[in-house]
Specification:
7% strand; 5-stranded mixed β-sheet; binds iron/sulfur cluster; 24 helices; Fumarate Reductase Iron-sulfur Protein, Chain B, domain 2; 50% helix; 4-stranded parallel β-sheet; 9 strands; 4 domains; alpha/beta; Glutathione S-transferase Yfyf (Class Pi), Chain A, domain 2
Length: 455
């Protein structure tokens, strides 16, 4: 599809208020962020979707053109336009590459919100309502769905689904989706009744922890390990039971209202535990961390929450960021492994956290880190992207797996549940053991090796 470049004389020349064909597609603030793009193209080579198909409308610059043209009323919202915007992984690699500091993620989420509001099909609206208004805000409902999925995964049904899909009796997509779904833990992560786990030994810090929505179901052991690593390093860990999903999946899908409701619920939950007393609010999922840090932007126009959201966001740290900043005090034992590290997009590009996870890996005795080429490039997971855009997701994953396997190790460390699932899928597709692990799992293993009597 040809992209028509909007008439641009100088940066900020056309404003939302002045633009004659404006459809009110973006707020003034998001439009201002959009027109910072000077079309230099420095972001193109960093964009996984552009690298996969070479199409300008599937590049950051092309997508910004499209959003701007729609916003200025010179381009109708066609199925093609929607498709190019939906193909974006929102990995934000373009933000890192951009010399004009275009906040691409902010613009894309705003554009998707408007698309959902104005142009979504009834089916898409219903699915979005079901997921982001009826399921993710309610941990008990998520747990119920998780329990049903776990029973399904441990029954012969996945095998039968695969057979029927191969025989073309069921759609092939069903079998692919089934393989991409997270394998649910045997035991889900539970927030303790006391909503607090005390430090082991001398108390050095008091931190809050967000348990997440997918992590307790699919990575319960990693959440357990996160609590153990924090307490072993002198932290009282506060886990308010009223906390909710961070809203990242809703935000990426364009449901800004559901995201804002979840943000308010989380702020309320931590304020009830004296948020200002907490040194940090720690999270072990990169996508969630980026979202939690954006609560100030999300709620800036809400007079009741704007200042509280700013205080909340200022305390959020990825677990690797917190541990690298405060220093590891727990004894560390040997972990004899060679690993490579995948920079989760929302950690490297969304939060600019790159050196801290590597510092922690280097601190584990016996562990060898082999850097992979383009470790900062997306693996194709991107929330539910691998389910809604399976073909592009697999193209992006294949490029990633080439770089993983070229390191000579198939143990990949990442700090985001989506990346771990996607990388394990890639390893399995290449006939390897699924050995993608979270960084806190390795830290926990190291601490356990030093203190073998620990539970
Ligand atoms: S967010 Fe990622 S996929 Fe989307 S345009 Fe930017 S680099 Fe490309
Ligand atoms: S690098 Fe930034 S300014 Fe250049 S084309 Fe990409 S988004 Fe626009």
């Amino acid at each position: 599809m040809a992209v028509t470049e909007p008439t641009i004389t100088t940066q900020h020349h056309v404003t939302v208020a002045e633009s004659p064909g404006l459809q009110g597609f973006l707020s003034e603030r998001d439009y201002e962020a959009l027109v910072k793009c000077v079309h230099c193209g420095l972001c193109l080579n960093e964009c996984p979707t552009y690298r996969a198909n070479g199409l300008e409308p599937d590049s950051p610059r092309g997508r910004l053109y499209l959003i701007r043209a729609v916003s200025e009323g010179t381009l109708p919202v066609t199925d093609d336009v929607v498709d190019h915007l939906q193909k974006c992984l929102v990995c934000r690699a373009c933000e890192t590459a951009c010399p004009s500091n275009v906040q691409f993620g902010q613009v894309m989420e705003a554009a998707r919100h408007e698309l959902l509001e104005r142009h979504a099909t009834p089916k898409r609206r219903f699915l979005s309502w079901l997921a982001f208004r009826q399921l993710f805000p309610y941990p008990s409902r998520l747990r119920l769905v998780g329990t049903m999925l776990r029973v399904y995964q441990r029954s012969p049904l996945p095998f039968i689904t695969d057979l029927l899909a191969r025989a073309r009796i069921l759609p092939a997509r069903l079998s692919v989706m089934e393989k991409m779904a997270p394998r649910l833990s045997n035991r889900f992560f539970e927030i303790p009744r006391t909503q607090m786990v005390p430090a082991r030994g001398e108390r050095r810090h008091s931190v809050g922890m967000i348990a997440g929505c997918i992590m307790p179901l699919a990575f319960a052991e990693t959440n357990d390990a996160t609590v153990r690593v924090l307490t072993a390093n002198g932290c009282d860990v506060i886990l308010p039971a009223a906390q909710r999903c961070c809203g990242a999946l809703a935000a990426h899908s364009g449901d800004a209202d559901a995201t804002a409701d979840l943000a308010r619920a989380n702020i309320d939950a931590f304020e009830a535990f004296g948020m200002d007393r907490l040194e940090s609010i720690v999270i072990n999922a990169a996508g969630c961390g980026a979202q939690l840090k954006a609560y100030d932007h999300l709620l800036q126009d809400d007079p009741r929450y704007a200042e509280r959201a700013r205080r909340f966001a200022s305390k959020v740290e990825d677990v690797s960021e917190f541990l690298a900043r405060t220093g590891l005090s727990a004894p560390m034992g040997e972990v004899r492994r060679t690993v490579t590290y995948q920079d989760a997009c929302h950690l490297a590009h969304g939060q600019k956290v790159r050196s801290q996870p590597r510092e922690l890996l280097h601190a584990i005795p016996g562990l060898e880190l082999v850097e992979m080429r383009d470790s900062q490039r997306c693996c194709g997971s991107a929330g539910i992207y691998n389910i809604v855009q399976p073909e592009m997701s697999m193209d992006v994953l294949e490029a990633k797996m080439e770089n993983v396997l070229a390191t000579g190790t198939d143990c990949v460390v990442a700090a985001n549940p989506g990346c771990l699932l996607q990388l394990n899928l890639g390893l399995k597709q290449h006939g390897r053991e699924p050995r993608a692990v979270h960084i806190v799992d390795l830290l926990d293993e190291s601490i356990r090796a030093a203190t073998p009597s620990r539970p």
